[in-house]
Write a structure and sequence with these properties.
600 residues; mainly alpha; three-stranded antiparallel β-sheet; 26 helices
């Protein structure tokens, strides 16, 4: 049967929309990012424990004393594991996506309930939206909206909308038809019948749908982290890519606390705003009697408490001191607080060079922001102007496919390190395998697999498309994709157990100094001649920041400097990369002035 080019049709459609509807996507980006930035600024402004107190008062009003105490304890825990800002970013993302989803879903649900034809048409569309893997929505989202919060919010809206539409339709359809007929018999207009009869009675079901929308939105936080959405998704994505169990647990428990809070609050809010819910709540309270742990303050009392805490939080924010960061030496404040967005792939040389430049730019008065991306998202982000520059492009071979695709939107500032090499590597105790050709017929020893890194890495594309085919290994070995950290973790486990393993690796890399490894020779030259590590920037960055662009063009590190910098960052530990850079710079006197000279 001939292949149906469905993917090609979709790709052509996406390209057409991007080329001809750019104004629409720019408008949506402006609106959504404006909503997100405004809400995020409000949530980040107060001191964490004061805002936790506001959340606790709301829980006290809706759920009682026990819920209020647990809410404060939960948010205090988020602050204690240093995930507060990330949690507020995630809460902002969820709330913005939820508001937009409700604005779209409730009218669609009403329309569907009142018109069976519309309901029949919407049903398969909603099935498609809800069952399509959420990751797929990110692909056109990145093309239309670039990287950042907006594609994550758009993907969240699409993924979370079906339950909002379905529950609204269900709630209205479940309203007793005799009540509707009675309203119409007394001359009530269709509009008033909807607003005064159907919607109030359907409100508990609609609120249950909104609750599901919020829960689905929270499930998207990891996905939004993959495209630079930040928040707890970024923490979880970083933990996955670096196999950091501690960071993964901290990010995960913070998501759980947010999910439980939003679930309980929205569930109780339905009881508060619904006439039926208020009656049921009053009846339950009369049966239980007065108990301390079920005490709920009057609405006016709760609102006074929220207002007082908000005023205190605002006062602390206005009068408190929040000066943090690297001190700028006199006469070297070139940046004057301007923001520079750095993106990086979680490869060791990329992490090292990125955090080195973050420290240098801070010392020169800039406000650099670093964000981890998957390699494809990083190139897309630079091409759309969301990322200013990155320092870990392997050219002309490894990242050739990305460069060919985006080179018209990027500037190459040249190689700061070279010559590199890509290789497959085995532990030195593996005997009889010294070259790629020796792997032929030996797959059983290695479990039939080669341990790879990120699937979007250029090295992985070369391995699958060229290297394995040249040596006749493509049908014998399966390449396992994952992350650089997971590959290194598997290498470490195999070496400790003295088991044969073959992994993708490159030079320079600190693993060669930590373990006794053997690079497999490449007599057919399948890996190419090697690359330089280049710095790339978005088009126009040199015009916006000519001084930074000049520094990057002149930037170089030798092998001793790079490997010692990587080692210092490894010693500092994950989440302390910049501390490792500062420690390393103390051993390199004058290097900052050499890499980023400022006229006297």
């Amino acid at each position: 049967m001939p292949r149906l080019p469905l993917g090609d049709w979709v790709d052509s459609g996406v390209t057409y929309l991007r080329d001809h509807c750019a104004w629409l996507f720019d408008l949506i980006t402006t609106i959504v990012s404006g909503m997100y930035d405004g809400l995020d600024a409000v949530l980040r402004a107060p001191e964490p424990l004061l805002l936790a107190g506001i959340f606790a008062v709301l829980a006290l009003w809706l759920r009682g004393l026990t819920a209020g105490v647990l809410t404060f304890a939960g948010f205090a825990l988020i602050d204690s594991v240093q995930q507060w800002n990330e949690a507020m970013d995630t809460l902002s993302l969820v709330l913005v996506a939820t508001v937009i989803t409700i604005v779209l879903a409730v009218p669609l649900g009403i329309w569907s309930a009142r018109n069976r034809t519309v309901g029949a048409v919407l049903r398969p569309v909603l099935d498609f939206m809800q069952t399509m893997p959420a990751f797929v929505y990110l692909i056109p989202g990145i093309f239309f909206f670039g990287v950042g919060q907006v594609p994550g919010i758009i993907a969240t809206i699409v993924f979370a909308m079906p339950p909002g539409v379905r529950m609204t339709e269900l709630g209205i359809r479940q309203v007793d038809g005799e009540l509707v007929e009675a309203a119409e018999a007394f001359g009530t207009s269709p509009r008033n019948t909807l607003l005064r009869v159907q919607l109030p009675l359907a409100l508990p079901t609609i609120m249950a749908g909104i609750n599901q929308v919020i829960m689905l939105a929270l499930s998207m936080v990891v996905i939004s982290g993959m495209v630079g959405g930040g928040g707890l998704g970024s923490s979880v994505f970083t933990a996955i890519s670096q196999v950091n169990v501690g960071l993964g647990f901290e990010g995960g428990i913070s998501v759980v606390i947010l999910a439980m809070y939003l679930d309980r609050v929205t569930g109780s809010l339905g009881s508060r705003v619904s006439p039926l819910g208020r009656r049921a709540l009053a009846a339950a309270n009369s049966l239980r009697g007065a108990r301390v742990w079920t005490y709920r303050p009057h609405t006016a009392v709760a609102m006074v408490g929220v207002v007082v805490l908000a005023l205190v939080a605002g006062g602390v924010n206005v009068f408190g001191s929040s000066s943090t960061g690297t001190a700028v030496a006199a006469g070297k404040n070139v940046g004057h607080g301007r923001t520079v967005n750095l993106g990086y792939i979680p490869w060791d040389e990329g992490i090292a060079s990125t955090y080195l430049w973050k420290e240098i730019l801070e010392e020169r008065g800039y406000a650099p922001k670093t964000t981890q991306y998957d390699v494809g998202a990083l190139y897309t982000g630079m091409s759309t102007g969301k990322v200013d520059f990155e320092t870990d492009s392997w050219l002309p071979t490894t990242h050739k496919s990305y460069w060919d695709k985006y080179k018209n939107q990027l500037d190459d500032y040249g190689s700061w390190y070279g010559q590199t090499s890509l290789e497959l590597t085995v532990p030195s105790y593996v005997k009889g395998i010294d070259s790629l050709a020796d792997l032929k017929g030996r797959s059983k020893e290695f479990g039939g697999r080669i341990i790879g890194i990120e699937p979007g890495a250029g090295m992985m594309k070369m391995l699958n498309d060229t290297v394995l085919k040249k040596y006749g290994l493509d049908g014998e070995y399966q390449v396992t994709t994952g992350s650089t950290a997971s590959m290194l973790a598997q290498l470490d486990r195999s070496i400790k157990a003295k088991q044969p393993v073959v992994v993708t690796l490159w030079s320079p890399h600190w693993a060669y100094s930590k373990h006794s490894l053997k690079k497999l020779k490449d007599p057919l030259g399948a890996w190419g001649k090697g690359d330089g590590v280049h710095s790339l920037a978005r088009k126009g960055f040199a015009s916006d920041e000519p001084q930074v662009a000049k520094w990057l063009k002149d930037f170089t590190l030798d092998e001793k400097q790079l490997t010692s910098l990587e080692a210092a960052i490894q010693d500092a530990g994950q989440n302390h990369e910049q501390d490792g850079v500062r420690t390393w710079l103390k051993t390199q006197p004058g290097l900052v002035d050499k890499l980023a000279p400022v006229a006297a």
